[in-house]
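for the writeup, i need someone to sanity check this before i put it in the appendix. the sequnce is what the collaborator sent (i think, or maybe the updated version? ugh). structure was predicted straight from it, no edits. if anything looks off just tell me and ill rerun, i have time this weekend
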Amino acid sequence: MSVTSTDAKGFFSVVRTTLAVSGVIMLLLGLFILVWPAKTAMFFAGIIAVYLIVQGLVYVGTGVFSRTDGGWSRIGHVVLGLVYVVGGVLAFVNLFAFTATLVLFIGVLLGITWIVDGVVSLSLLGHGKSRLWTILYAALSIVAGVVLLFSPFYVAIFWWLTGIALVVLGIVQIVRAIMLRRDAAVLAAALNADGAV
């Protein structure tokens, strides 16, 4: 089964779109964090608190109104729902502390994710023009992850570093998507030339 230029273009189009969309999202989120750090953090914390309450009410409703589940399953749903609701209400009672904890958690999670993303990017190096941008993205991703994990545990620093890293990584990701378009054209031309022989 041979790969056609149409298959290659389709694959590169999906990868390029994924890179571009993730780059734009990272760039915008990073800019929001840098321009409105406290408001952005409180906004996300508020969304999570609302989610906890809504999810809790769904579980409580499932436990109370279920006609097919057994007694222990229904009790489990109600208890889990109450835990979610209490967690959401406590988050709203002290939204500032919840936000600080959430930002710290996100910083640690992003640090680990960026290190893994950088290593994975290095393992997927191609031979096209986007190779340099892939190496740059991987290096920046690993460095940003290490900095987030090993910087002092001050919430403001975590949030600020997260914003800067998201902006830089978003820009590099967008450039990778643009460069991948050129690589796709080169590969399609090579496949067409091979098919013509």
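The longest helix spans residues 155-196. The mean pLDDT is 81.
thx in advance!!
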